[in-house]
Hints:
Elements: H1 22-41, H2 47-83
Helix pairs in contact: 1-2
Amino acid sequence: MEQINNENPLMVSTLPIEGERGGGLYKEAMQQLEEISRSISSGELDVDQLAAKLKQAKELVEFCKQKLQTVEADVNQILGEENA
Length: 84
């Protein structure tokens, strides 16, 4: 698994939505969200760090939503083909 870089609040922008490691990328995004949640909950972030973490979390959530929508569409297509 690639190292999570907490210094770069825009790390998610380097994660492709599709690819051969798509499932792994989703898992990594979820792990990053968990880490962000822990760092925010710690109460030790200054305002600038908090803003960066929230921006990163928003991008990660959007990535995960897109990935889930893609998988849902694929599953629906497969089920539709089986019923035809």
